[in-house]
Fold this sequence. Notes:
Layout lengths: L15 H9 L6 H5 L5 E4 L14 E15 L6 E8 L4 E7 L13 E11 L2 E5 L2 E5 L2 H7 L3 E4 L8 H15 L9 H6 L5 H9 L4 H31 L10 H9 L7 H15 L5 E6 L5 H14 L3 E5 L3 H17 L7 E4 L5 H13 L4 E4 L13 E7 L6 H8 L6 E6 L5 H7 L4 E5 L9 E6 L4 H13 L3 E5 L7 H19 L5 E4 L5 H12 L5 E4 L12 E7 L6 H8 L9 E6 L5 H12 L3 H12 L1 H5 L18 H17 L9 H10 L1 H9 L1
Parallel strand pairs: 4-6, 9-14, 9-15, 10-12, 10-13, 11-12, 13-14, 16-21, 17-19, 17-20, 18-19, 20-21
Antiparallel strand pairs: 1-8, 2-3, 2-5, 3-4, 5-6, 5-7
Helix pairs in contact: 6-7, 7-22, 7-23, 7-24, 9-10, 13-24, 19-20, 23-24
Amino acid sequence: MQSLEDISVQYVKGVGPARKKLFAQLGIESVADLLYFFPRRYQDRRNLTPIAQVQVGEWQTVSGTILAKDSRRSWYTKKHVSQMTMDDGSGRISCIWFNQPYLDRYFVEGKRVVCYGKVDVYKERLQMVSPEYEILESEEDEGLNLKRIVPIYPLTRGVTQRYLRRTIKASLEKYKDRLVEQLPVELRNKHRLSNIKRSIGNIHFPESFEDQENALSRISFEEFYFFQISIILRRLSITCKKGIAHKISDAHALRFVDAFPFELTGAQKKVIREIRADMEGRSPMLRLLQGDVGSGKTLVAIFGCVMAFENGHQSCVMAPTEILARQHYENIKAMIEDGTFKDMKVALFISGIKKAEKDKLYEQIKNGEIDLVVGTHALINDEVAFKSLSFAVIDEQHKFGVRQRALLAEKGKNPDVLIMTATPIPRTLCITLYGDLDISIIDEMPPGRGKVETRLYNHQQADEVYGLIRKKAAEGQQVYVIYPIIEESEKLDLKAAKEMYKYFQTTEFKKLSIGLVHGQMKQKESHEIMGRFKDKEIDILVATTVVEVGVDVPNANVMVIENAERFGLAQLHQLRGRIGRGETDGLCLLVAEAETSESNDRLKAILSTTNGFEIAQHDLEIRGPGRFFGRHQHGLNELKVANPLTQLDILELARKEAITLTENDPKLAKEPNRYINDIIKKRYPTYLKDVKAG
C-alpha cells in the first residue's frame, strides 16, 4: 500500500493541482504533511459570549450577522480604514482594519461572521481593532466552525481557516486508518499513550480539551523521543573521534589574560578555563558559548585561536554577515596587535573581496601562511583549504544550520569547534535541545558600560522623537534610525527607508549630516558609509537591519527603531545592543503601533528588561521554540507541537527513555531497534549524514 508520504496533497478532496501550490507555501506536499500540519491554538466556540456580555479589555470570540460595512481613508493617518458592524441579537460591535482595502469585498451584509480580537470602547461603542475574522458561507461551515472547539492553523495567502479545516477533515476521513504507528508498543503501554490514529484525530478536532491535551502529550512524547535519540547518537559520534590535543603552559595562558589593558570578568576567565580543558583533551571540542550582546565573547574566542597558533595550527571565525565578519576582523586584529601575540597573521575572507586578492588568500591559507581567517559562509566553499585547521568559531549559531557547521568542521581533521550566540536560552532547555554540545555562559558584563533606557512612542508622537534626536545630536552624540525590511514587502520597505532618508535631509534634520545604509548596496559603498559614521562624519545613520550585529560605534548612543512592532524580540534586543557600548548611557526610542497581542507582548518585554537571558525567556514564551530557534536548527522543524518550554516533564521522560535505549544499543543495531534507526535516518537525513562528517 502506498505510504501517506508518497500521496500528493492534490488528491485530497477540494485541493487539486492549482491549490497544491498554495499548500506548498505552508510546507505541505503530501497527505502525511497535511495530517501533521497541527493547529497553533484553539478557540472554544461551544458557547460563544453574546456581544452584550463581552468584557472590555479582554480578547474574545464573537459571532453575528454582518449588519453594515464602510470604507474610508483616515484624515489623520491617511490609512485606508475598513469597518464592519455585526449584530448577534444581543448587541452590536464594530470591527476595524487598516490598510487592507481588499476586505471591503469580503464583508457582505447578511452573511454570518466570527471575529476574535481585543474588545475596547470608542465613542461609547464596542469595537475590535484588526481582529481575526472568518466568514461562514453555509450550514456545513457552521458545523465545522461553530458550536465546537475549533482549531486555528497557520495560514498563507489564498488559504482560509474554513477551507483548511474542511480539507483536513476530508483527509482524516479518507486516510486516517493508513497512519503508521512508530512508537514501540511497550513504550506506549508503559506511559499509557494513545495510538497515533486517535491522537491525530483529536489534535485536529477534539471533542474536549482533555482529548486535545492527551493527543498533544502523545504526539509530543514521540517527537521528543526520536529527537533525543538523534542528539545522543550525534554526541556519541563526536566523543569517539580523535581530535587534536593542544598544549599551553600556565604561564602562556596567564600571559593571554594579562595582555589586555582591562580586567577580564570572572565569567570570561571561567569560560577560558573550560575551553583550555577541552582543547587539551583528545576528543574534539564542541561547545556552545552563550553571552549577551557586548559581554566579551569574541575575546574569549581569541584564546582558542591563540592556543591553536601556539601549537602550530590554524583557526577561523565564521560570521553570518560581511559587516559582522569585518567588525570581528578589525577587533581581533586590534586585540592581537595590542597584546603579546603580534606574530599571528590574521586575514579577512568575504565574498566582496577582489578575485586576485581572493586567489592569493586561497594559497596563503592552504600553505599555512595565515594563522587566523575571519570570514562569512564563504569559508565553507570548496576552494578554501586549510593546511591544519584545529579550531573553528561559529558566531550567531542560529543563523547557520547543522550542515553548514559540519562543512566548516570538515576543513580540518576533527577540529575543536566553539559556537557563539547572543541569543541565550534557559540552561535546562539548552542542555536538552543541544545535547550534543557542552555549554558555557558569560553572564557578566564588562565594567564601565553605559546603561540603556528604552522608551515607546506611537506614530503621532514623531515630532517628540525627532526633537530628542536634534537635542542629542547637538550634544555631540550620533544616532541610528532603523527601518524594518521584511521579506514579503522588501521593495516597499526599502522604498520607505529611502524616502524617509530624503525627507530627513530636506526637512527634519537638514542641518545635520545624514547617511543611508541597506542590504541592497554594494559592499564597498556600505563599508565606506559605516566608516564615515564611525569617524563621526555622519550624525544620523538611516539603516535597515544590516546593523543588527557587529557594528560597534561607541559615540552612537541613540537609536530610533521605526515600526518596532514588525521586529522580532531577539532582533530588537540585538539592535539595542549597538548602543551604550561606551561609558555614555544609551537611549533607545521605539516607534510602534502594536496591532496584535504578540507584537504587544514583544514591546512590553523589550521595555521591561535589558537582560538578554530574560529577553530570551520572554521570546520563548511568546513565540514557542520552533520559531525561536529558526528553521535551520536540527530537529526543531520536526517538533511540530512539542514545546520544551511548557512540556519539560514530557521532554525529560522521553530523554530518559532515549538514554536507556542508546545505552543498551548505541548503534541501534539489534533487531528490535533497527526500525528506530530507520525512522531516525528518515526524520533527520541531513543531520545523520553530518554525524559521519563530525
